[in-house]
């Protein structure tokens, strides 16, 4: 099958450090190549892939967004996709609704995976205007605000089974990993760890838009021995931090569409303690690979119950449900169905 993967350009594929969408695009692209498909990746030129790379920018636009318009790079790349579409059987967009108008001009089947929340005011009228665009959700919770959309499938993210090795034994700390933002709850994680009298190691990216929040709400709480901020880590650093953690704290206060860090923790054998928001109940099996809690009080109690969780069971849940191989196979089934449906529509129109 000839497949085009269309990434966002904010980070390279894969990203050097933080970057959810580009990381998933990389995992999917490389797995599709391993399956024998002919894959073309539209991404920044500093990306690394075994697929055919078509650069949409000289580097990740995160590096130049203070001096350039990031949207300009995306629109130019999407026009390139349209012009090349006759070379593909299917075009897979990861660019949110930005790609919708371009799908009208494609000469190939297409599908768009949505990676963001869908409960924001103003989105419904837009999605209704493009109600025929096939979509894939990454969790059932994500699609709840738009149940009538043209959903072609639901495919939870998956990562390479060998990327984060299993750690049978944990150290003494709990971990917070991801991004410093009010929706992610790093301040709640610090309070939980402090009340449980367990050291917390924090590894997170700080966007400029969230720096004032960090300085006002988070930094004053970071003090030894209960909180240590390690900054933004690469994969090796994340493996070290998560693999040796007693648990991952995930005290979110927003409808998280997926939450890749949860499956990264499970791959290490590390249980997840998470607030019951968004996709959490679809990833965390309460009492099996972690605990789903309602508030900080219950999170403190969950830390005291971590001995009830078998780290091997956490790894098993990852291998059963969240590998890149499982994700790629699910997408191939969707691709094949959409290609057949497009061919049938063309045959009917020509009859």
From TrEMBL:
It comes from the Bacteria. CDD domains: GT4_AviGT4-like. Pfam families: Glyco_transf_4 (PF13439), Glycos_transf_1 (PF00534). Transmembrane segments: none annotated. InterPro entries: Glyco_trans_1, Glyco_trans_4-like_N. Residues 18-127 form the Glycosyltransferase subfamily 4-like N-terminal domain. Residues 174-310 form the Glycosyl transferase family domain. PANTHER family: BLL5217 PROTEIN, GLYCOSYLTRANSFERASE. This is Glycosyltransferase family 4 protein.
């Amino acid at each position: 099958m000839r497949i085009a993967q269309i990434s966002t350009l904010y980070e390279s594929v894969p990203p050097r450090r933080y970057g959810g969408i580009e990381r998933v695009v990389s995992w999917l692209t490389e797995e599709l190549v391993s399956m024998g498909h002919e894959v073309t990746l539209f991404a920044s030129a500093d990306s690394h892939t075994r697929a055919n790379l078509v650069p949409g920018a000289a580097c990740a636009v995160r590096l130049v967004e203070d001096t350039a318009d990031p949207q300009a790079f995306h629109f130019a790349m999407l026009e390139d996709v349209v012009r090349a579409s006759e070379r593909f059987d299917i075009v897979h967009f990861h660019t949110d609704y930005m790609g919708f108008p371009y799908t009208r001009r494609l000469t190939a089947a297409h599908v768009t995976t949505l990676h963001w929340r869908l409960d924001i005011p103003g989105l419904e009228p837009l999605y209704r205007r493009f109600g025929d665009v096939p979509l894939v959700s990454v969790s059932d919770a994500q699609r709840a605000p738009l149940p009538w959309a043209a959903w072609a499938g639901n495919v939870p993210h998956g990562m390479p089974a060998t990327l984060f090795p299993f750690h049978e034994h944990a150290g003494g700390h709990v971990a917070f990993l991801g991004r410093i933002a009010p929706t992610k709850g790093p301040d709640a994680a610090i309070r939980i760890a402090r009340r449980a009298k367990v050291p917390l190691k924090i590894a997170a990216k700080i966007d400029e838009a969230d720096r004032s929040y960090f300085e006002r709400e988070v930094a004053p709480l970071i003090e030894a021995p209960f909180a240590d901020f390690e900054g933004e880590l690469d994969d090796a650093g994340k493996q070290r931090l998560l693999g040796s953690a007693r648990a991952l704290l995930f005290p979110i206060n927003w409808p998280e569409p997926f939450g890749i860090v949860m499956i990264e923790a499970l791959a290490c054998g590390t249980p997840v303690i998470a607030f019951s928001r968004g996709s959490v109940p679809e990833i965390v099996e309460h009492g099996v690979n972690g605990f789903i809690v309602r508030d900080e009080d219950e999170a403190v109690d969950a830390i005291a119950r971590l001995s009830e969780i078998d780290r091997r069971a956490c790894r098993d849940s990852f291998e059963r449900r969240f590998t890149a191989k499982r994700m790629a196979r699910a997408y191939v089934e969707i691709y094949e169905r959409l290609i057949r449906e497009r061919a049938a529509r063309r045959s009917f129109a020509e009859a």
